């Protein structure tokens, strides 16, 4: 078991290393931008996976944490000065606000059925969008505002995107391993137990609520960090960060990639961003590509019915089954010898 | 005082519209324990098809009928293709109906175009009555009347007829009802179709009162309906009516006196209800919220 874990870790590190070298091979602005988007949304979708995949909580308001993160850093950096200390202050503000919101939403509704959490988060996110639209003096409304990010000494203007690329990649890798560690810890096991059978977990002596609230806070804070990276990578923010579509993106990425796998959301983010990019280009070929959400909606429905484990989950299951079969064969062979 | 009464009438009319969407939602949830996130999409489809048939046939009533038929058909399709594979699994129900909501909204844009469409008010309901200083817009009075009639019909059917008894018993113990010779599957399909038709009718009635319809209205009003169902108590028809009126009135009054609060006030009501009475104002026995 230990050895298999290590090989997968090595594979992930190798992929991260290759991704790290990419901008030095292909220094194309649009390509870098697309990759940064993939990384940012991968973090966001992974935070969603903590709720949906590991604990079995459906949130429809994850965009509010994303928006809180994006606006926290954008407002602090445009109001103060664009230095690293104000960036860090923005991150701290993002963590605190998103943590409080996630805590309150969790305490109020997580003891109820899953519908209530889904609906309350949907309504709360709607409220955040509404407030952001109205509070134009701070948020800039739908037009949004641009802000400057700190200059790096010794880095040319042209290479700034490479630095942001490496920064988001590093954040994604660190958060990925952090979350992987969390889900493999005893705490993560309890969460999976809650997903599978919460009454059983309760009868084993665990109090469910603190666990659910805790993971809701962790997930919210990580989503806010994704929002921070999003705002910094664009150097621009508007009220679209609170849009329901942001939540839907995370949902689609997680479901298509594979719930409860953490790698799945990363793959889902890559698929969604790439196909969004290329299908929009195809819009001139046929109008259906302009309405690409239909295609994704249908794929989403089919995945939920036929492949509830998503891409990564289905592959893992197949591999596991094969391994079990081989083991059964081995045992049979040995018993035949005896 | 006149202003107060005018605002109250507007609020009640808005509440009745919300009640029409919410009642379908609470019917499907309360009777079948299925939470349909695509419900708002059915509302939007009702609005579009209502306007389409009204303009095409030049008859308001045929427009409403067209919307109801659309709702029945879409409800049947939803039950058959989307909900039936995932009965009993709440999380997958939520996910799959949300996916269907996306498809419904985008399909509206494909069929009717992505632009905002004008919705005409029928001639017989144009204008208003003046009683002293109180203005009653005819169409709003019509909506209130329709809402009240539907409430009374639904309430009495569920409470006193055999149908209501069968559906309520079917949810409590499906197998037992099946063994007693009732085709409970068919009953569930019918409930789903009626709930969807209610949403579609709500959409068709809403269109002339707002004057314009757009594809995203499904999601907006879907959220309203969910809030109302939470406040009123899942599965309770009187609860939905009361909560819808409360939300409608609160919205209209704050929109007049404190416009900035008009959206937030609904959320505040919901939060207060969730903190002090999480099962909702009314809660029929047999539907647990834990």
Automatic annotation (TrEMBL), chain A:
InterPro entries in the record: ABC_transp_permease, LivM-like, MFS_trans_sf
GO MF term list: branched-chain amino acid transmembrane transporter activity
Main location: membrane
Alphabetically ordered keywords of this record: Cell membrane, Membrane, Transmembrane, Transmembrane helix
Membrane-spanning parts: 6-25, 30-48, 54-75, 87-108, 114-132, 162-179, 213-238, 250-272, 292-315
Membrane topology value: Multi-pass membrane protein
GO cellular component, one term: plasma membrane
Protein's UniProt keywords contain Electron transport: no
Protein location: Cell membrane
SUPFAM superfamilies reported for this sequence: MFS general substrate transporter (SSF103473)
Top-rank lineage group of the source organism: Bacteria
Protein name: Branched-chain amino acid ABC transporter permease
UniProtKB/TrEMBL annotation, chain B:
Pfam families linked: BPD_transp_2
Residue ranges of the TM segments: 12-30, 37-55, 61-82, 94-117, 137-158, 179-201, 221-249, 256-276
Membrane topology of the entry: Multi-pass membrane protein
GO-annotated biological processes: amino acid transport
UniProt-listed InterPro entries: ABC_transp_permease (IPR001851), BCAA_transport_permease (IPR052157)
Keywords on record: Amino-acid transport, Cell membrane, Membrane, Transmembrane, Transmembrane helix, Transport
Compartments in which it is found: Cell membrane
Molecular function GO terms recorded: transmembrane transporter activity
Similarity remark: Belongs to the binding-protein-dependent transport system permease family. LivHM subfamily.
PANTHER family: ABC TRANSPORTER ATP-BINDING PROTEIN, BRANCHED-CHAIN AMINO ACID TRANSPORT SYSTEM PERMEASE PROTEIN LIVH
Identification of the protein by name: Branched-chain amino acid ABC transporter permease
Lineage: Bacteria, Bacillati, Bacillota, Bacilli, Bacillales
């Amino acid at each position: 078991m230990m050895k298999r874990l290590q090989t997968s870790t090595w594979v992930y590190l190798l992929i991260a290393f290759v991704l790290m070298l990419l901008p030095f091979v292909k220094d194309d602005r649009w390509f870098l931008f697309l990759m940064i988007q993939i990384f940012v949304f991968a973090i966001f979708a992974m935070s969603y996976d903590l709720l949906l995949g590991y604990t079995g909580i459906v949130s429809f308001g994850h965009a509010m944490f994303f928006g809180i993160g994006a606006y926290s850093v954008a407002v602090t950096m445009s109001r103060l000065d664009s230095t690293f200390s104000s960036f860090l202050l923005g991150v701290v503000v993002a963590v605190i606000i998103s943590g409080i919101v996630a805590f309150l939403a969790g305490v109020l509704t997580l003891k109820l059925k899953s519908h209530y959490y889904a609906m309350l988060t949907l309504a709360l996110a709607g409220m955040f969008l509404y407030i952001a639209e109205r509070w134009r003096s701070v948020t800039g409304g739908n037009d949004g505002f641009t802000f400057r990010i700190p200059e790096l000494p010794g880095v040319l203007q042209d290479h700034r995107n490479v630095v942001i690329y490496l920064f988001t990649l590093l954040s994604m890798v660190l958060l990925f391993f952090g979350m992987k560690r969390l889900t493999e810890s005893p705490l993560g096991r309890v969460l999976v137990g809650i997903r599978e059978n919460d009454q059983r977990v309760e009868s084993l002596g665990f109090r469910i609520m603190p666990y659910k609230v805790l993971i809701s806070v962790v997930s919210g804070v990580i989503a806010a960090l994704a929002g921070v990276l999003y705002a910094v990578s664009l150097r621009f923010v508007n009220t679209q960060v609170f849009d329901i579509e942001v939540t839907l993106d995370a949902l689609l990425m997680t479901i298509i990639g594979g719930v409860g796998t953490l790698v799945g959301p990363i793959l889902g983010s890559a698929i969604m961003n790439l196909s969004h990019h290329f299908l929009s280009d195809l819009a001139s070929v046929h109008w259906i590509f302009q309405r690409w959400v239909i295609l994704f909606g249908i794929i989403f429905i089919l995945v939920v019915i036929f492949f509830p484990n998503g891409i990564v989950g289905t592959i893992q299951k197949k591999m596991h089954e094969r391994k079990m079969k081989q083991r059964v064969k081995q045992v049979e062979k040995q018993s035949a010898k005896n | 005082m006149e202003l107060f009464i005018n605002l109250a009438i507007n609020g009640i009319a808005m509440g009745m519209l919300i009640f029409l969407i919410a009642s379908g939602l609470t019917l499907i949830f309360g009777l079948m324990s299925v939470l349909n996130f695509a419900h708002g999409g059915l509302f939007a489809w009702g609005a579009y098809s209502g306007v389409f048939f009204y303009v095409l046939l030049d008859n308001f009533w045929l427009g409403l009928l067209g919307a109801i038929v659309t709702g029945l058909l879409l409800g049947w399709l939803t039950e058959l293709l989307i909900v039936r594979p995932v009965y009993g699994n709440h999380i997958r129900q939520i996910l799959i109906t949300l996916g269907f909501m996306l498809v419904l909204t985008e399909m509206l844009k494909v069929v009717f175009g992505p632009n905002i469409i004008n919705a005409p008010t029928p001639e017989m309901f144009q204008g208003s009555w003046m009683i002293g200083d109180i203005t009653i817009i005819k169409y709003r009075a019509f909506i209130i009347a329709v809402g009240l009639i539907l409430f009374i019909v639904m309430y009495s059917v569920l409470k006193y007829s055999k149908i209501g008894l069968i559906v309520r018993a079917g949810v409590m113990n499906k197998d037992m009802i099946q063994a007693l010779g009732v085709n409970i599957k068919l009953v569930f399909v019918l409930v789903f179709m009626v709930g969807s038709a209610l949403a579609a009718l709500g959409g068709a009635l809403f269109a002339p009162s707002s004057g314009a319809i757009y594809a995203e209205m499904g999601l907006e009003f879907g959220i309203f309906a969910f809030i109302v169902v939470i406040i009123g108590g899942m599965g309770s028809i009187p609860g939905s009516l009361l909560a819808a009126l409360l939300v409608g009135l609160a919205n209209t009054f704050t929109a007049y006196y404190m416009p900035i609060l008009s959206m937030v006030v609904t959320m505040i009501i919901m939060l207060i209800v969730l903190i002090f009475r999480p099962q909702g104002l009314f809660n029929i026995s047999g539907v647990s919220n834990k």
